[in-house]
Amino acid sequence: MQFYKGGNMFPDDSLTLHTDLYQINMMQVYFNQNMHNRRAVFEIYFRKNPFNNGYAVFAGLERIISYLNHLTFSQSDLEYLATLGYQGEFLDYLRNFKMSLTVRSVQEGDLVFANEPLVQVEGPLAQCQLVETALLNIVNFQILIATKAARIRSVIEDEPLMEFGTRRAQEMDAAIWGTRAAVIGGANGTSNVRAGKLFDIPVLGTHAHSLVQVYGNDYDAFMAYAKTHHDCVFLVDTYDTLRLGVPAAIRVARELGDKINFLGVRIDSGDLAYISKKVRQQLDEAGFPDAKIYASNDLDENTILNLKMQKAKIDVWGVGTKLITAYDQPALGAVYKIVAIEDEKGQLRNTIKLSNNAEKVSTPGKKQVWRITSRAKGKSEGDYITYDGTDVQALQELEMFHPTYTYINKIVKDFDAVPLLKDIFNEGKLVYKQPNLTEIQAYARKEFEKLWDEYKRVLNPQDYPVDLARDIWQDKMDLIDQMRKKANQTGVAK
User: Fold this and answer.
1) How far apart are CA 402 and CA 106, in angstroms?
2) Contacts of residue 295, Cβ cutoff 8 Å, sequence gap at least 6
3) Domains of the chain, earliest start first
4) What is the helix (H) or strand (E) element at residue 306, kind and residue range?
5) How far apart, in Å, are the Cα atoms of 379 and each of 3, 383, 412, 452, 485?
6) At a CB cut-off of 8 Å and minimum separation 6, what does 191 contact?
7) Confidence (pLDDT) at 235
8) What is the bridge-based pairing of β-strands 292-295 and 316-319?
9) pTM score of the predicted model
10) Distance, CA of 282 to CA of 272 (rounded, Å)
11) Residue among 351, 382, 379 at smallest CA distance from 364
């Protein structure tokens, strides 16, 4: 890929500078203070489930792997940084930069929830700092799209869902990676040919209204299309769906018979509930009961739910704008917080961020997230956060309690505990074998089935338990108390 600035080409442009300036400023501070190689642990999490949903679907790991695998400063990167005033030994450090991070992450397709670590980055402090912006950029976008697709999938159940949103996406990369995320969440295919090529996603295309407008009538346009393409879905609402479009599609299907595979018709406007019923009637009476009705037109999970309540006769759902843009929530709000830092003695020290907003107080320490599943019920009991190194599988029972409202609690016995954070990179070396997209989608569906229906509801779902182990909770309370006392002792009185 080539980029231009002022007419000059940067053939070696990289994603390494896809970061905020303050990250490099902080790297320079750490370098000058000889702290840049101190071991640190950062974690990514979000504070509230998107779309007021009961869950989110994790996506973005493939993009993260690709980004970290190519994390190096190119010559043009270094030349540009020099123009910003970076020089000397620090610039030499960047020139010789070699990614050596240890990264753990939940897997793509995993159901994830607010206030639990999704990605954990450990390694030299300066390196941890550099990658923050890009990792958040990836995770914040792809989780939204995957979750939106899962919400739509939960409403249409086993009916086909096609991603049609490329033209409305926020530029090209968003369309490509958004399409992939949508497939993880439950889409069966896409209209985007490049996404189909890159990720082996089934592609589907019919034709646009412009084809009919070029010919001036539905019949000639459909006949021309059918003489060119064997598999035919005709867009029937250019002029008059019921009087012109559908009759023309039926006529072409009859005249060409077995010469084409008449898959059905697409409607893209009007009252989809009413029109789809009438179209279904026309197709059935004409002897095409197997012809499908494809529908698009600013659909989302709420519109589809209402169409189903009205018994709309729609077989395949094409969802565009409101899926690829996560239309009703433009940002996830995931954050990247330091949870531990190496002290002068070489020991990891837990660290915490305090805030007057209770939800913005971070949870200290290097952690692991365990998915707790009842063996008897085969359903999830909640997620349980422990310090890294704790073996929950060896415990006979768990005390699970709400980290804020501690009186909400339960004792769980006879359970399976699965650690969610998997090793991805070990000191810069990729150790994770990424499954293909079909496997990821199947895994996501399997995990979805383990969730109680109360958490799956599109409207007003129950809050899924994300609980802290008692030692983490106690250490958090103690750190809050210590920092408050320190602030009161040294702070300026009002």
Assistant:
1) 22
2) 266, 267, 268, 272, 276, 307, 312, 314, 316, 317, 318
3) 3-145+330-367+420-488 (3.20.140.10), 148-324 (3.20.20.70)
4) helix 301-309
5) 50, 12, 13, 6, 43
6) 162, 163, 164, 166, 203, 204, 205, 318
7) 98
8) parallel
9) 0.94
10) 15
11) 351
* Tens of pLDDT, residues 151-177: 999 999 999 999 999 999 999 999 999
**Cα–Cα distance between 322 and 326 in angstroms, integer?**
6
Residue 365 corresponds to which tokens in the numbers above?
A: 């320490």
Instruction: Give SS3 for 250.
Output: helix
**β-sheet bridge partners, residue 312:** none
Q: Which amino acid is at 201?
A: I
Q: Cα separation of 22 and 335, whole Å?
A: 16
Q: Cα–Cα distance between 388 and 266 in angstroms, integer? A: 53
pLDDT of residue 10: 84
Structure token pair of residue 340: 């531990």
Tell me what percent of the chain is helix, strand and coil, each rounded to the nearest 5.
40, 20, 35
How does pLDDT run across 327-353, given as a tens digit for each residue? 999 999 999 999 999 998 889 999 988
- Tell me the average confidence (pLDDT) per consecutive run of 10 residues in the chain, 494 residues long: 58 94 98 97 97 98 98 96 97 98 98 98 98 98 98 96 96 97 98 97 95 98 97 97 98 98 96 98 98 95 96 97 96 96 92 76 94 93 96 94 91 96 98 97 95 94 95 91 80 54
* Cα–Cα distance, 225 to 239 (Å, whole number): 17
Q: What is the DSSP string of 125-152?
A: HHHHHHTHHHHHHHHHHHHHHHHHHHHH
User: Nearest CA to 253 among 218, 278, 277?
Assistant: 218
- For the chain, give the number of residues: 494
Rg value, the chain, Cα:
27
What number of other Cβ atoms are within 10 A of residue 321's Cβ? 17
**C-alpha neighbours within 13 Å on the C-beta side of residue 50:** 29
